[in-house]
């Protein structure tokens, strides 16, 4: 009997290792993956610096405003909203976007994304002003990108100029005269290269230290934005990870994961000794700790009501906001 029980436990452990992936299989990370895919392509197309998952304080409401992507290039700052909508799109009388998917009885309603993007641009501009950067007129713009090929839209010609539909998006090329490359407005700076460089340096300094969502990178090229809560597992493992705090750590990377989770994983952590008297970090130091691969990361995904658990064996890296 004990042999059968032992064999059953071994089989169960093997089954979980090969087929059970914590909440990874359950998480709808496609929206976040779309944001990262768009961000990477934008940087390839236009260069500059890209900032993902910002949480900009809104002075009017007192709550942070989420911004998918901010692109800073020579002579321009672009606020970009990525909407990974799919299905048949229509717009109701109130201006909401309605997506209906085949086989689903309920349609999804979304606020007008252009209005949302314009609001985000306004909040970001106010935030920059509070931090000492006043942008020249016309320097900031906003766009809404619809990257999902499974979205069936009405005539694209009826879209506002801020909308970049899928077919337009995939046709963009570096330096092409397109809707997207038409963002460049360096003329607003009067052609003064020194002023342009100064504005960009200030923007990059501020945006690189602006609040962001915490970020999980999972195996299978999946990303999740949200908030890191804690580690759970054996007491000695949680104790070994006690120094991973926002005040110290900006990023951790999983270096090695043992087979079947039977031996410790090697977890390499970047300690970022933040000095809040200056902009950014004052020193960094790599340190390593060994913990079991079954140790869990407790994470609250953005716009989700349920807290998720991810084994370290499923995680590639985690980035924490200051």
Characterize the structure shown:
The chain has 6 helices and 17 strands. The strands form 3 sheets. Strands 14-13-12-17-10-11-15-16 form an 8-stranded antiparallel sheet. It has 2 domains: 30-207, Trna Endonuclease, Chain: A, domain 1, CATH 3.40.1350; 213-319, no CATH class. Residues 8-27 and 184-190 have low confidence and may be disordered. The termini are far apart. The protein has 322 residues and is an alpha+beta fold. It comes from Senna tora. Keywords: Signal. Residues 30-147 form the NERD domain.
CATH architectural category of the largest domain: 3-Layer(aba) Sandwich
Q: In terms of structural class, how would the helical and strand content be classed?
A: alpha+beta
How large is the radius of gyration?
A: 23 Å
Taking the sheet with the most strands, its summary is: 8 strands, antiparallel
What is the CATH T-level topology of the largest domain?
Answer: Trna Endonuclease, Chain: A, domain 1
Q: What's the order of the H and E elements?
A: HHEEEEEEHEEEHHEEHEEEEEE
Q: Portion of residues in helices?
A: 10-25%
What kind of assembly state do the chains in view correspond to? single chain
Instruction: Indicate the overall shape.
Output: globular
**Strands, total number:** 17
Distance between the termini: 54 Å
User: Low-confidence spans: pLDDT under 50, at least 5 residues?
Assistant: 8-27, 184-190
CATH class of the largest domain: Alpha Beta
Strand ordering within the main sheet: 14-13-12-17-10-11-15-16
- Number of helical elements: 6
Overall pLDDT, averaged?
81
Domain tally: 2
Report strand %: 25-35%
Keywords: Signal
Protein name: Plasma membrane isoform 1
């Amino acid at each position: 009997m004990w042999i059968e029980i032992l064999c059953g436990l071994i089989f169960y452990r093997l089954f979980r290792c090969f087929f059970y992936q914590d909440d990874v299989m359950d998480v709808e990370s496609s929206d976040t993956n779309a944001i990262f895919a768009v961000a990477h392509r934008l940087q390839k197309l236009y260069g500059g610096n890209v900032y993902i998952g910002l949480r900009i304080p809104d002075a009017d409401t007192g709550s942070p405003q989420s911004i998918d992507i901010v692109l800073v290039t020579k002579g321009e700052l672009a606020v970009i909203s990525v909407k990974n909508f799919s299905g048949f799109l229509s717009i109701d009388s109130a201006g909401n976007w309605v997506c209906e998917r085949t086989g689903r009885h309920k349609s999804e309603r979304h606020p007008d994304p252009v209005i949302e993007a314009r609001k985000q641009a306004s909040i970001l501009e106010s935030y920059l002003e509070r931090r000492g950067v006043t942008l020249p007129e016309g320097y900031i713009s906003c766009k809404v990108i619809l990257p999902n090929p499974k979205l069936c839209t009405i005539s694209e010609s009826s879209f506002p100029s801020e909308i970049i539909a899928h077919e337009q998006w995939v046709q963009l090329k570096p330096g092409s005269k397109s809707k997207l490359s038409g963002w460049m407005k360096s003329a607003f700076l009067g052609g003064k290269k020194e002023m342009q460089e100064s504005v960009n340096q200030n923007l990059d300094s501020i945006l690189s230290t602006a609040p962001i969502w915490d970020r999980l990178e999972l195996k299978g090229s999946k990303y999740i934005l949200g908030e890191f809560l804690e580690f759970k597992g054996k007491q000695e493992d949680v104790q070994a990870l006690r120094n991973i705090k926002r005040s110290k750590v900006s990023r951790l990377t999983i270096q090695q994961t043992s087979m079947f989770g039977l031996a410790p994983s090697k977890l390499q952590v970047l300690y970022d000794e933040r000095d809040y008297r200056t902009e950014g970090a004052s020193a960094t130091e790599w340190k390593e700790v060994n913990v079991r691969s079954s140790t869990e990361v407790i994470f609250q995904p953005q716009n989700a009501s349920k807290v998720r658990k991810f084994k370290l064996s499923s995680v590639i890296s985690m980035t924490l906001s200051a």
